[in-house]
Amino acid sequence: MAIIEEFPRAQGAPGIAPRWTHSAKDVVGTAYSTASPIWFTASGGVLNEIYYPTIDRPQIRDLQYLVTDGETFFHDVHRSQETSIEYLGDRGLGVRITNTDRDGRYRVVMEIVTDPHQPCVLLDTRLEGDADLLRRLRMFVLLSPHLNVGGWGNSANVARMAGYEFLTAHKDNTWLALGANVPFVRRSCGYVGKTDGWQDLNQNFKLDWEFASAPDGNVALTAEIALPEDYHFTLGLGFGNGLHRAVTCLYQALGVPFAQHSARFIEQWSRACTHMYPLERWTGDGGHLCRRSRELLLAHEDKRFPGALIASLSIPWGEVKGDEDLGGYHLVWTRDMVNSATGLLAGGDLATPLRALIYLACS
Hints:
The protein is α+β, with helices and mostly antiparallel strands. The protein is built from 8 helices and 18 strands. The strands form 3 sheets. Strands 1, 7, 8, 9, 10, 12, 13, 14, 16 and 18 form a 10-stranded antiparallel sheet that branches. A hairpin with a 7-residue loop joins strand 7 (81-87) and strand 8 (95-101). The termini are far apart.
């Protein structure tokens, strides 16, 4: 494995002051298995904070796709697309997010789950729309790492392994690796607000900068995706406590078809909720809200510290908070923990409230 150095180091260090994102979440997701210590959130059609390896440690600010025809327009989600969200099935927290061009010309459809057995988030992605337009579209992924709960001090690199080129970032001993089951055409690392991919594409609809590294700052990773003939691919974001672990996690996850991951993801959640009371028979929506509420409460339990139920996977007023005043609801507060545990108990879950009681007694 090699870090690519033939491209220059990014300019604009250390970037603008880092911030987090809004606390109003549309999506919270994780596998039920403790073998997958990773959680994702989303709002406004964009993947926000990803937590790893414990539920109180956000590791990125956001990840999104950017779309351009290379000549007349450049679109990101917030400014140019409308979002709709639905769950992948009756069980589980896997979601389908569809971001549609406001003029109706194309749409980006993402099905999102985590690998049920590894710390990797998977985005199975389709670009749909008018055939003539699709042939002209170029698609990019933009990732802003905030490793080890902070935007400052991150380092990013373009890397290569056995002919595969991908992007990495690290801070201390925490690493991430971003790749796909299709090639990346162009890659770059830059400093947020100065030389990141959004700034580059916004200037002339092209990724002109190809920086090999952006050390020690508020950084962003950008890659152009080699769209296949069917405009369908899977993107992965893997984590580990070293470069090799993060990359191995990424490519092991991408080596299994997304459909298999998704089926296993849903099956785990189905088994997790079979022992609860059938409260859906007394609901007016077939039990949809009841099932999601149970799953969301269960998703807020840490996987390394059983029984640790946090208040919320969010950072209040995160859009104005940096490293020095992070705060957040991703903490174990007795009041919220008791409410979560008693809610699960009322639904017939005896095991999770018992774990929470033991956690409190031992804390």
